[in-house]
Every structure is written in structure tokens, then in C-alpha cells.
């Protein structure tokens, strides 16, 4: 399915020549405060930013169409927290090393408050018209647009169709069915994202939200954190580890290690993002290949489904020397059906452009996304989200792993949240 990667466009020498040959300004490049033309640098991470990945294909497509301003990916780490750290280092120093930033939906508030990203109000209308409302919302803060939607995200339950008949609808059922199926097959029941980082917070919240919990009220003026519910779901996760429902690697797994476990046939169930679907489907040597399907995530109550709303939008660095071209790129990546369709067809990465879903309604990943995205729940987009997340990781990760008192862990999270609204 995936096309072999041919990354020809933007070798350093080639770009220098291009920049030197471009006289004065042109429509794409000259923003009046620096270079005309020239290479753009797109700082983005994760599996699909690597050679052969779909973000590289999007960069290649743009570069072919815009030889004056080709774009190259500066590969960031796989893990969201580390990507943020690397971007923050450059932006705090007001460095012009990155023109376009792949910004997780939870960083919009922080980046805009820090003055790290350009306002995109000038191109707001066309971007708003093209994008899914939830994805568009995730790129705004304080009523202003700070990034162009690029890929949205929601968690799926992956399950082995050769080992279980029906996907479970509650987390308790998942453990029950999973333990029995795993025992029979000599593998492990479940893996998700249990390492101490943003992905753990996402996994924890999906339990907590699906039990009816909330962090704040809508306008974030009141803390609604329910310590009793929080303690219950934390206890559930601790028990799932103690009772062998979670695979032994759960507490150190991020997205990619979890994918590897599933792809190598070591687990019955996995919580992961849609990008995994395409990769397992392509791997004909995988025991899961041809033997898996996707379903909405289970809930605590068995009612409906809930997932954290994820995704990455493209922002323009406030310190870029090539802002006009960078704005053109992020607008194109949000509103042109070609790159948006590539995300879906080459990599099962969920696009943000509404019309692409209509055109791909026969695709199983897009069909399931159509079901779960409307219920996907945003993490509070507050500028202080990173600090809240780090506190949740610090308090809840040991508690889930049997290393801390659950009650005091959830109380400390509530106290921290209270501190954010005083
Ligand atoms: C995915 C999501 C992102 C989330 C991260 C957590 O990359 O798109 O929103 O923060 O996973 O690991």
C-alpha cells in the first residue's frame, strides 16, 4: 500500500543553489523580513515522520509543486513530551531553525501565549471551511487561529479476530475475555500506552471520562475532579497489572512499543491510534495481519464510547525567516485534498478535512473514525496543560503501578487542578 519513499527534493546543496538563484521576492517566499525562496524546515515527530512515512510523502509532494520553497522534515522524537521539549528549546531561544511546527492539539494555548507561533487569522476562513469542527477548535486559543489542522486522532481498540469473537464493550470484560484468550494462545491480554508520559495521561483519562468523570467545567472556572471515581479507575488499572491483564511491558510502553507487541502477535488487545492499522495491514509477516479488526474503545460503564481527541496541527514559528511560504504550506496541508487524502490512503492517519471522509467512506478506518470522532473528548487546551499532565503522570503513574497510595495520588491531582484556577 505504502509507496516506496523517494526523497529527492531538498538536499542542502540543492536548496542553497535554489536560494541563490531566486532574484528578489516571489509570491511564495518573501515576507519582507528575510530570505526570498529557500527551504522550509518542518519540525515533526512520530512514526510517520520517518523516511517512508506519510509526512515525508506530504513534504515531497509540496516540494515538487513548490521548487522555490521545498520543505524538509526535521525529525523529532517519537514521544509527544520529548517533541514538545525539543521545539520549546528552539523557540525559547527565538531560533529560526524551524519554520513549521507539528503542534500537538494540547500545546496550542501554551505556544500562542508564549508568542511562539504566528496568528493564522488571515487564512482563517478557508481553513475553517475545510476542516472538521473539532480539529479546527483544537487549533484555536482565545478565539484566534494559531495553527492549521493537519491530522486528527482518536483511540481505537485493536483486537485479534482469530482469538476473540466480539470486541468487548467494557474494560472489565476486556480483561476477562483477554486473560482467557491470551492463556489459550500463550500470549498476553492487553497493551496500551502505560509509560510515564502524555500517552499514559490519555489512557488514564479514557477510563476516567468513560466512568463519567470530568476535570473542569466547560469554561475552566471550576474543578470537577471526582476523587472517588479517579481512585476507582486507578485501582482498576492497578488490579489489571497485578492480575496480568496488562502485558508486563505496559508500564514502559509508548505508541510504538505497543504497536510492536501487537504486530508481533504478542497480545490479544491493544489501545492505539489509527496509524497502526495501515502498518499492521502492510506487514504480511505479522501474525496479526489478516487476523485483526478495530472497534470503538470500551468504557467503564459499557455505554457508548469515549476517546481522547488527539492530533497534530501545523503552526508557523514566530521566529521563521520565511513566514509567508510557511503559511502557504500549512494552509495547503489543511485545505488541499491531495495531501489530506494521502494521510488516509497511504497511512491510515486521520485527516482533518471534512470532504476527505465523504470520499473515503468505504475505508474501514475512516468509517470507524466517523463513529468515534464525534464523541472524542479534548483534553483542556489550557496553556498550563503540560504542567497538569506532568503532575498527573507524577502522581498517578506510581499509583497505577502499586507504588503509591491511590487516595493521596488522586487528592494531589485535585489540589493541583484547584491551583490552576485560583
Ligand atoms: C498522539 C496524539 C496526541 C497525543 C499523543 C500522546 O500522538 O495525536 O494528541 O498527545 O498521542 O502520546
Automatic annotation (TrEMBL):
A biological process term (GO) from this entry: maltose transport
Pfam families from the UniProt entry: SBP_bac_1
GO MF assignments: maltose binding
Signal peptide: 1-19
Annotated TM spans: none
Record GO cellular component, one term: ATP-binding cassette (ABC) transporter complex, substrate-binding subunit-containing
Keyword Transport on entry: yes
Keywords carried by this UniProt record: Signal, Transport
Protein family per UniProt: Belongs to the bacterial solute-binding protein 1 family.
Protein name: ABC transporter substrate-binding protein
Amino acid at each position: 500500500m505504502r509507496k516506496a519513499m523517494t526523497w529527492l527534493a531538498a538536499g542542502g546543496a540543492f536548496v542553497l543553489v535554489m536560494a541563490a538563484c531566486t532574484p528578489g521576492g516571489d509570491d511564495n517566499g518573501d515576507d519582507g523580513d528575510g530570505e526570498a525562496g529557500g527551504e522550509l524546515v518542518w519540525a515533526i515527530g512520530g512514526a510517520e515522520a520517518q523516511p517512508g512515512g506519510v509526512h515525508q510523502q506530504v513534504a515531497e509532494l509540496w516540494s515538487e509543486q513548490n521548487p522555490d520553497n521545498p520543505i524538509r522534515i526535521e525529525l523529532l522524537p517519537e514521544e509527544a513530551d520529548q517533541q514538545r521539549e525539543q521545539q520549546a528549546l528552539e523557540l525559547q531561544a527565538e531560533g529560526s531553525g524551524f519554520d513549521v511546527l507539528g503542534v500537538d492539539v494540547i500545546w496550542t494555548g501554551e505556544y500562542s501565549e508564549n508568542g511562539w507561533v504566528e496568528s493564522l487569522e488571515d487564512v482563517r476562513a478557508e481553513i475553517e471551511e475545510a476542516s472538521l469542527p473539532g480539529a479546527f477548535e483544537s487549533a484555536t486559543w482565545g478565539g484566534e487561529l494559531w495553527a492549521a489542522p493537519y491530522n486528527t486522532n482518536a483511540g481505537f481498540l485493536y483486537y485479534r479476530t482469530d482469538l476473540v469473537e466480539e470486541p468487548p464493550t467494557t474494560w472489565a470484560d476486556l480483561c476477562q475475555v483477554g486473560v482467557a484468550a491470551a492463556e489459550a494462545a500463550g500470549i498476553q491480554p492487553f497493551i496500551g500506552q502505560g509509560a510515564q508520559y502524555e500517552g499514559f495521561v490519555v489512557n488514564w483519562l479514557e477510563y476516567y471520562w468513560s466512568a463519567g468523570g470530568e476535570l473542569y467545567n466547560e469554561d475552566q472556572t471550576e474543578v470537577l475532579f471526582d476523587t472517588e471515581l479517579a481512585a476507582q479507575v486507578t485501582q482498576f488499572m492497578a488490579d489489571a497489572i497485578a492480575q496480568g491483564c496488562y502485558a508486563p511491558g505496559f508500564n514502559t510502553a509508548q505508541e510504538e512499543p505497543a504497536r510492536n507487541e501487537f504486530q508481533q502477535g504478542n497480545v490479544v488487545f491493544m489501545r492505539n491510534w489509527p496509524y497502526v492499522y495501515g502498518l499492521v495491514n502492510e506487514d504480511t509477516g505479522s501474525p496479526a495481519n489478516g487476523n485483526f479488526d478495530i472497534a470503538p474503545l470500551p468504557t467503564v460503564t459499557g455505554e457508548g464510547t469515549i476517546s481522547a481527541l488527539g492530533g497534530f496541527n501545523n503552526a508557523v514559528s514566530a521566529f521563521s525567516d520565511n513566514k509567508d511560504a510557511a503559511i502557504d504550506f500549512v494552509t495547503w496541508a489543511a485545505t488541499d485534498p491531495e495531501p489530506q487524502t494521502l494521510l488516509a490512503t497511504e497511512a491510515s492517519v486521520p485527516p482533518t478535512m471534512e470532504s476527505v471522509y465523504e470520499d473515503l467512506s468505504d475505508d474501514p478506518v475512516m468509517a470507524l473514525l466517523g463513529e468515534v470522532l464525534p464523541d472524542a473528548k479534548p483534553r483542556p487546551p489550557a496553556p498550563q496543560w503540560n504542567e497538569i499532565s506532568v503532575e498527573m503522570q507524577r502522581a498517578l503513574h506510581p499509583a497505577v503501578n502499586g507504588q503509591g497510595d491511590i487516595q493521596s495520588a488522586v487528592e494531589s491531582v485535585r489540589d493541583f487542578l484547584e491551583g490552576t484556577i485560583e
